[in-house]
Amino acid sequence: MSHRSASDSGCKSMRVHALVGTIVLLGCAMTAYSQAKQTPSQNGVEANVPGSSIVRLDPALDSVIAPDAKIERVATGFKFIEGPMWRQGRLWFSDLVGNKLYAVSPAGKLEMLKDHSGGLDSFPPGAYMGSNAMATDKDHSVLLIEQGARKIVRLDKDLKASLFLEKFEGKHLNSPNDLVFATDGSLWFTDPPYGLQKQNNDPAKELSFNGVYRYANGKLTAVIKDLSMPNGIGFSPDGKTLYVSNSGPKMFVEKFTLGSNGEVTGRSTLISYPGSAPDVPDGLKIDSAGNVWTSGPGGIRIITPAGKVLGQIKIPEVAANLAWGEDGKTVYITASTSVYRVKAKIQGELPLYH
């Protein structure tokens, strides 16, 4: 993106170095404007955000996003936000660096739901050790990833946390990152080492791989073990295809064909990105036509199941993740310090227990 400042260039140099050492510093790049924001803002929804645009790369994008669609900023002033989920008429999201769980209404009204949401009372400044992704379970409780505490917890109606998952075959998980329920009710999640201070080289890392897991009938299975940094995760509308983004050192979104019991029966690459960038393939979501909306260098790309890029949503910050909200045709984007949204013409593929 052409709006990078001098400090952003420094972050990019750090990023390249980090990727070489498989230490990914997510979100270091942001605009001077967003860097200046120190506290969450409730100044209302902001339209016509400078530095934002929707790039039409294929005429078919017009059936997905209207040509005159606007990108709006709903809230800002956070440290690094992630893990969005639509719940009870509001967008819930995590501040990974601020260690807080928030909710914002469509009108921009903000509420902090939980402090120290990453499961730790404190951690080094700038570390990505707060809470991350979340999903509503069939009993209406919320499963929340405590990235710093390296586990998945269940939040009750009072937002009190109880342990759900933290070990695989007696070994502590690295630090769960993103999660989603499959159409059969099984829970899938990615487990890169972002919540560890030294990541792959951290002495606290007990597993030799960074996996993609399936939890069903009380059993946790490591379905995929050969991705270097698995991150975002989602399913096609029919539940037969799994998509997983890999953040580094090589950046791509992988496409897996699944069997009836969740086993991988085939795989291919949906999209790959050359080089390195501060904004890596991170969160992704699917629409009702099977298009994959995935974060990556330069913003959110909308990609057909066959791998054709229809267009790109560009915003003036690093986009980490996204979620369908409101009427199911509104895309909310968590991007470094701000929440953005854009209206779509197509229905999103909503979570199983939305």
Instruction: State the fourth-level CATH superfamily.
Output: TolB, C-terminal domain
Largest sheet: spatial strand order: 1-24-23-22-21
Oligomer: single chain
Count of separate structural domains? 1
CATH topology: Neuraminidase
Report the strand count: 27
Could you tell me the mean pLDDT? 89
- Find the structural class using helix and strand composition: mainly beta
Please write the string of helix (H) and strand (E) elements: HHEEEEEEEEEEEEEEEEEEEEEEEEEEE
How many helices? The count is 2
Approximately how much beta-strand content do the residues carry?
A: 35-45%
The CATH class assignment is Mainly Beta
Give the distance, in angstroms, between the N- and C-terminal Cα atoms: 34 Å
Helicity level:
under 10%
Question: What are the segments in which pLDDT stays under 50 over at least 5 consecutive residues?
Answer: 1-38
In the CATH hierarchy, the architecture is 6 Propeller
Morphology:
globular
Cα-atom radius of gyration = 18 Å
Q: What summary fits the major beta sheet?
A: 5 strands, antiparallel
Word description of this protein:
The protein has 354 residues and is mostly beta strands. It has one domain: TolB, C-terminal domain (Neuraminidase). Helix content is 6%, strand content 40%. It contains 2 helices and 27 strands. The protein has helices at residues 6-20, 32-36, and strands spanning 53-56, 71-76, 81-87, 90-95, 100-104, 110-115, 131-136, 142-146, 151-155, 161-165, 167-168, 171-172, 179-181, 187-190, 212-216, 219-224, 230-235, 241-246, 251-258, 264-273, 284-286, 292-296, 299-303, 309-314, 321-325, 330-335, 338-343. The strands form 7 sheets. It has a 5-stranded antiparallel β-sheet, with no helix packed on it. A hairpin with a 2-residue loop joins strand 15 and strand 16. The longest helix is centred in the N-terminal third of the chain and has 15 residues, at 6-20. The model is unreliable at 1-38 (pLDDT under 50).
